[in-house]
Design brief:
By secondary structure, the chain is α/β, with parallel strands linked by helices. It has helices spanning 11-23, 34-43, 60-69, 87-95, 108-117; strands spanning 3-7, 27-31, 48-52, 77-82, 100-103.
Amino acid sequence: MKSCLIVDDSKVIRMVAKKILQELGFSTAEAEDGQKALEHCQRELPDAVLLDWNMPVMNGLEFLNALRKLPGGDRPIVVLCSTENDIDHIQEAITEGANEYIMKPFDSEILQTKFSQVGLL
């Protein structure tokens, strides 16, 4: 079973994402900010990370940079999600190491499509 770390400061978003991802066959773990997500990844790297951009403590891009520097940190597929939908934000996310980008709010169909596009399904 593939694993996905859900990183978002919104408990509701984490709950919705967890339900969708478990229905798609993923085991899930959660973190409410980038620092807690990094600590999780230092213990155990997931196959995928569903990552919010705007969070307290450590934002999504800061986490992404730190993740990619960990041993094996290039392996997890990172799907960044945000309410920011302009091309500059999307390009910045991809340049910083995200594999894909989705807009909030997302639903099961969007997650399934993006996770298929990056080879997770």
